[in-house]
Every structure is written in structure tokens, then in C-alpha cells.
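Page 42, continued from yesterday. The earlier attempt failed because a stray header line got pasted into the input along with the sequence. Redoing it now with the clean sequence only.
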Amino acid sequence: MTHATIDTTPWVRRYHPAPQAPARLVCFPHAGGSATFYFPVSRALSPSVDVLAIQYPGRQDRHTEPCVDDMAMLADLVTDELGPWLDRPVALFGHSMGATLAYEVARRLEAAGTTLLGLFASGRGAPSRQRDERAHLATDDRLLAELRKLSGTEARMLDDQELVRMILPAVRSDYRAVETYRHRPGPPLRCPVLALVGDADPKATIDEVRSWAEHTTGPFALRVFPGGHFYLNDQAPAVLAALSSHITPDQGAERT
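This time it went through. C-alpha cells are written below.
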């Protein structure tokens, strides 16, 4: 079964199918995040771009499935799932943990012969810039404090004890995946890379994000926005315009 007959799979969510779009954008959530984070992106870019959002195991409707806490394994699984969706030009967008995962998927796709429109890496230092972070080893209370500090999850959701019990295993698994990730040497990407970051992001400095330039032989650009780790929530119109201008230049020009 291919995308021609199905719009949703356990791994891939296609909220606003755009079968006539000239390009496809695959979106990768942050640690603890889910595919629905990109529902507004899908709505905004359709029908100019066919947006797919990746749903990791262990959350929402996949909450009964085991989480995957190894970045390489997760990248292998996602790459396999994207096979049927490579019939048109594809770009990858990832925020935070999702940026690292998108990069690893991009490496695998290019190694298999796929030409990508580009990689959009948001809120994450370059793979070669390693931080010694161990939030995945913290107590539940400390992990919740980390989530509140980043403002990635609405505070009222974290006050719901039943919901917290449901999401914490996925959050911890994702943090383990990204914090134990180590970049493996290999050929740089060939596709363009656009790195995006908030100017007050505690998880990624502008210097760390600028180092994404080292990971491609293609064009590189850096965009800095006002805000913290989840700057893209407040800067959505500008972020969407930046994505559009790289994926479909004509439409992007119309949006700006």
C-alpha cells in the first residue's frame, strides 16, 4: 500500500493531503513531542507543499508501543517508512531532537541516492557540537522542571498528573536518544541546509547552530529569530515564510 491510497500510517501523518504539490516536507518533532505539533504547519503550507509529520512510538495513539531510545535505530526506522513518499522532491524539517534525527535520516537518504531539496535544522546545535547533558537520568520532578523551563509543553498540561504519567516515559526515552547520540564521521550532506534558532535559546547557541555549515557541501544559511527554545511558536509566520522560500521559491516570495 502506498501514499496514493493511504494518508496516515503509524509513523507518517498527512493532515492536509496536497497531491498536486510540487514538493513534500517531512517534519520531525522535538523530544517528548508528537506529530500533531506540526498540524498548523501542514494547514498553513497546503496545498503548495505536501506536509508529512513523523509520529514516534510511545505517545498519543502509539502510547502502547515501546519507545525507541537510540537515535541510529530511530533514523533507520523512519528512513524505511519514508520509502513510498520519495516520488517527488523532499525536504526535511526538524526541531531540537528532531533536527538531529532529520539530519541522520538525510544522511541515509542521500547515501541511498535520494536528492533532497534541503534540511531545515531548528533549535539544535550542529551534530558535531556535543553538550554533556543528562536530563534522561534525572528524577521525574527534575525532568518536569526541564520541560517547564523550555516552555515546550503548556504548563497546564504538566499539572495533569495522569497526563504526566503518560508522557514521561516518551520524554525520558527521547532525551536518552538525543543525549547519548554521538556523531559518526562520514561524508557531509550534499543538500542545502538552513539552520534556525531563537536568540535566547538555552539549548542551542547561535555559534553552535552556525556549525551546521560544516555538515554540508551545499549552500548554508542561518536565520536567527527572537525567542527561546520554542521561538517558532511565536514566530510562526516568519518561519513558514522562510521554509516556503526554500522549498517553493515562487510561493515563498508571495508569502513574504
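Notes: The longest strand covers residues 116-122.
Reminder to self: strip header lines before submitting.
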